[in-house]
Amino acid sequence: MTAGADRATIAGLVTGAEGGRIAAFLRDGATGFALNPFPDTTAGAARHTWAGQAFEFPLLGIEAAGLSCLLRALAALPASEPLARHILKSPAHTCTVFLTLAGGFVGAVLHGKPGVPLPPAGPEPAAGGSRPRRASPTRQLDLFADRARA
């Protein structure tokens, strides 16, 4: 699964508190796979790298989504656990996704450049279902109805 993974497949695997925002970014047409010189890594190496990023991002003014979930997931894995890393980019944002070699989702981090806000989470579902509600017809209230009769 990891060697030929596509954006939609990876987006379908994303879970977590900020998974909706990350999945929307992955599905966006402006997002594409980036150069990934080291696609194979371990949970220990990823934990070391992203623990450092968790410290540096706030100092540099970089917003991130999914970082705390990724760090919890990596902490639960043995340090020697092999992982596949996918890097996806748009002009202003980068998303790094970690999968097990069997294709299971471990975690993902979406971040921008310093001072650049994260992209929106995507369209919110309509309240009460997917169909738009029609306004019920209303009758106009005649404020002077009683005075006209007098």
Q: Any overview of this molecule?
A:
With 150 residues, this protein is α+β, with helices and mostly antiparallel strands. It has one domain. The chain is 32% helix and 21% strand. The chain contains 5 helices and 6 strands; from the N terminus they run ααββαβαβββα. Strands 1, 2, 3, 4, 5 and 6 form a 6-stranded antiparallel beta sheet that branches. α3 (43-60) runs antiparallel to α4 (67-75). The longest helix has 18 residues, at 43-60. The N and C termini lie far apart (82 Å). Mean pLDDT is 84; it is low at 123-136.
pLDDT averaged residue by residue: 84
Tell me about the biggest sheet? 6 strands, antiparallel
Helix content: 25-40%
Please report the distance between the alpha carbons of the first and last residues: 82 Å
Question: What string, H for helix and E for strand, traces the elements in order?
Answer: HHEEHEHEEEH
Q: Approximately how much beta-strand content do the residues carry?
A: 15-25%
Describe this structure in a few short sentences.
By secondary structure, the chain is of the alpha+beta class. Helices cover 32% and strands 21% of the residues.
List keywords for this structure.
alpha+beta; six-stranded antiparallel β-sheet; 32% helix; elongated
SSE topology:
Elements lengths: L6 H7 L5 H9 L4 E2 L6 E3 H18 L3 E2 L1 H9 L6 E8 L3 E8 L4 E8 L32 H5 L1
